[in-house]
Amino acid sequence: MAQQTGILLLDEPTTYLDLRYQVELLDLIRDLADVHGTAVGVVLHDLDQAAAVADRLVLLQAGGVAADGAPEDVLDAGRLSDVCGIRIDVDHDPTTGRLRTRAVGRHHTRTTATPAR
């Protein structure tokens, strides 16, 4: 960034950061693209982070491309569930309208808390 490069490639830049700094870094990445015209490629495993900041997503599976396109086209519940090997629910945040995902494990559907022992 100090060299004002036209292209920036980042591999998991939010890993190990507290939530506040993850959001601030993603905002900075989006600003670099929107305000400064920087082409930014980012590897993210957090699907919600990718949906929030990306214009285009490439979903990889076993070293190949499973899907490529706008977040609305790539983040499909069936496709994500197939690629990830676990049920992934996809809906829209009622406040922002942005896509959001939820990985569903065996215990995510519990309706009552388990008593403490």
Description:
The strands form three sheets. This protein has a two-stranded parallel ribbon with strand order 1-2. It contains four helices and six strands. The chain is α+β, with helices and mostly antiparallel strands. The model has no long low-confidence stretch (mean pLDDT 92).
Q: Which characteristics define this entry?
A:
117 residues; alpha+beta; two-stranded parallel ribbon; two-stranded antiparallel sheet; 6 strands
Brief sketch in words of this structure:
The protein is of the alpha+beta class. Helices cover 30% and strands 28% of the residues.
Write the layout of secondary structure elements.
Layout: E1 7-11, H1 19-34, E2 39-43, H2 47-53, E3 57-61, E4 64-69, H3 71-74, H4 77-84, E5 87-92, E6 99-104
Parallel strand pairs: 1-2
Antiparallel strand pairs: 3-4, 5-6
